[in-house]
Structures are given as structure tokens and as C-alpha cells.
Amino acid sequence: MLKKWRLGLGGGILAAILAVLLALFLDPRLLRFTPDGEPDTGGPPIRIGHIAPLTGDAAIWGVWEREGIDLAVDEINAAGGVAGRRVSVLNEDDQGSPSAAVSALKNLISARGVRAVIGGTLSGTTLAMAPIAMENQIVLISPSAQSPKIAAAGDFIFRLFVPTNQEGAFLADLAIRSGAKSAAILYINNDYGVGLRDAVTTTLTGRITIIVSEAYGTDTRDFRTQIQKAVGTTRPDVLFLLGYQADVATILKQLAEMDIKIQAYASNSFEGEETVKIAGSAADGVIYDYPVLLSTEQADRVRAAFRNRYGRDMNVYNGVGYDAVMVLAQGMKDAKAATGQLYGTALRNALRSLRNFPGVTGPITFGTSTDVINRPLEVRTYRDGRFEKLN
Question: Which of 114, 123, 165, 381 gives 191 a disulfide partner, CB atoms 3.0 to 4.6 angstroms apart?
């Protein structure tokens, strides 16, 4: 009888051990370890959404952002995560479509449990998502959308990039200082292009005569009609090209084919491989603005890590993707310390309290409108096969 009891006890202990091992196998969260080898008891990963064009005409900017995001996430997790929890990013491709961006945001909130989102890349997608983010108290931080309307989209909507009203004024002032007397404007007919057009027009008024201001659709591929209206007969001193890489590059190519030579000014989106691929030497001499990438010990370290990972230099869109993750991570840490909460109003308030956070794109402080303040610009040009600073 005693022997039988002992066997029964041993079998029970064995069964209990097997049950624990089975639970560990079925729940991988219980097997998570921090980088130093200690078990991570902080809970499941923190999920951050990323909604951007990863395919389609605007994909280059979404992909660039994602590269910076991935680098930042790996660095955060290697350092122990946020509040003892790993960070994971769920990417959604909006293809540059406002309606697709809204659907992606709703899915991330309702089906994936996401409470903080990086996006959108474009002004139209950001503005479309803003009411949904506000309704659900989801922090939405745009790395690169530029419409001035975003500043009034709500107090859960943050932005890291210089808005078009500041960029357009800067660009117009370059033409004024060049001594130009007349100008034409070609702009893409969306929130981005209209914002730039308005800022350029306001700054030029009374100083440079605007002969023509002509819009083109987002799906336009042949610009010869718009070119003829803008510069074909009037031949102003300068031409402002306010659009995306593919359309601006195509306009430059068609200008060359029409044998029209004119000094062109473009916005920051001009810089990139697609411009060179489409326009070739027709891009030579274009003057454009670009956010300054400051050289600091922190920024230089991140750029070196980026170069080692991707085999090329970090650009500003990689940089704002990286900074968006780092800013959210710091905000979550501050929110947790202050309130015990990671999301919602606690995260919003923590982000609004950030002062001179050391971003790779420069110190980050959000103003009263939740726009990042003090984003300096520099003058650049394309020549001899290179994009370079213009002194």
C-alpha cells in the first residue's frame, strides 16, 4: 500500500511538471527573456502601428520611413524594451489612399489592439485618419506629412516634419533673393501641393509677379499642356515645381524635350533616386530646400548604424521614421512613470511635455499645436550627378 501511494505521488508530480512545460510551450510570452538573459515579466509586446504607402507612387517615402523605424525598434528592444516589454511594429500599406489609411487605422485599433500609430506619410492620409484617432484617443504621430491643416487636426495628432507654410515661404524667399521678377507655379492638386502653392503665393505677392499658377492631378503623367500654359509663351524668370519626385522629374524631362530652359525651384521631395532615374541630366541646376540633418554625437552614431545596416547614408525620411519610434518610446516611459499608463491622455500629455528630445533629425519639442518646433532648412541643388548643399 505504501509503495502504491508513493508511485501515485510521483505520478502526480510528474503530471504537474508536464502541465507547466506544456503551458510554457503554448504561451511563448512566458519564455521571453530580456537581453541580459533574465525573464521578461513586463507583459506582451507593445504594438505600434505604422500606416504608410509601401506600394504605389508614394511608396519611396513610406519605405524610407520603415527603414528608420526598424532600426529604432531593434535598438529599443536590444536595450530592454519599454517598461520591460518588447516593442513590435505592425505595418499597414495605405498606397497613399486616404480611404485605405482610414480602413487600416480602424483595423489596427479594433482587431490588433494598437494604441499608438506612426502615420500618415502624406497629408491627405494623415488628415483622413485624424478624426478616428481623436475619437479613440490614439496618439497619431506623422513623420512627414506637411499640410498646415494638420496643426489644427487635434491634440492627439503630432508631426515631426516642417509644414508646407514654412517650407513654401522659405522656397519663395530664395527666388526673391535671386533677383527674379516673374514666376510660374506648377503644383500637384492635393493637400501637400495646395499648401505649398498658398505659401509660395503669399510670400511672392508684391515682390515677384506670378504669371501663371497651374494645378495638375495626382494621376497626371503627361505635363506638356501645363508646361505650355506656364512657361511655353510667357517665359517667366523662375518656375516653382511643387509636387512629388515622379511628377517633378517628369516635368523636368519634358521641359528638356520641349527645349525650354528655366531656373526651377522645388520642394524637399525632389531629392531622391527616382528624380535622377526619370529626369537624368534635366535635373541639373534645380534649387530646392531640405531639412537640416544636424551633426551631433547621437545623430552620427545612428547614421553610422544605418549605413552599416542598409549600405547607404540616412536621409531625412529615414531619420523622421527613426525619431517617431524613439519619441513614442520616451513618451510611453514618461507616461508610465507619471500615471502608470502607457497610452491615451497619459501618452499625449507626456509627448507635449517633451523638451529638446535628442532626435537624429534635431532636438524635438512639440509646440502648442503639437507640431515640432524649430525645423531649420538648407538650400540644396543637383549637379554633376549629386545632390549637394548649395553655398
Answer: 123
Return the CATH number at 209. Answer: 3.40.50.2300
**Residue whose C-alpha cell reads 523662375 in the numeric block:** 238
384 and 245 within one domain: yes
Calculate Rg over the CA atoms of the chain: 25
Does residue 25 sit in the same domain as residue 67?
A: no
The 3-state secondary structure of 64-120, one letter per residue: HHHHHHHHHHHHHHHCCCECCECEEEEEEECCCCHHHHHHHHHHHHHCCCCCEEECC
Tally of CA atoms within 13 A in the half-sphere of 388 that contains its CB: 8
Query: What's the pLDDT score for residue 52?
Result: 98
pLDDT of residue 40: 39
| 100 within some domain | yes
* Dihedral in degrees, nearest 10, Cα atoms 51, 53, 59, 65: -10
State the total domains in the chain: 3
C-alpha cell at 278: 526619370
What is residue 245's predicted lDDT score, i.e. its pLDDT?
A: 94
Parent domain of 11: 2-31
38 part of a folded domain: no
- Whether residue 217 sits in one domain with residue 143: no
Is the pLDDT confidence value at 28 over 50?
Answer: no
Residues 6+ apart with CB under 8 A from 299: 293, 360, 361
Burial per residue of 44-67, b for 16 or more beta-carbon CB atoms within 10 angstroms, e otherwise: ebbbbbbbbbbeeebbbbbbbbbb
Look at the pTM and tell me if it is higher than 0.90: no
Are 12 and 157 in a shared domain?
no
Do 57 and 153 fall within a single domain?
yes
The Cα–Cα gap between 377 and 290 comes to 5
Confidence of residue 57 (pLDDT cuts 50, 70, 90): confident
- Whether 242 and 186 have beta carbons less than 8 Å apart is answered as yes
Q: What average pLDDT does range 65-77 have in this prediction?
A: 98
Mean pLDDT of 101-108: 98
The pLDDT, as a whole number, for residue 42 is 64
Question: Are 61 and 96 in the same domain?
Answer: yes
User: Closest by alpha carbon to 171, among 208, 145, 144?
Assistant: 208
Planar angle of CA 328, 333, 334, nearest 5 degrees? 95
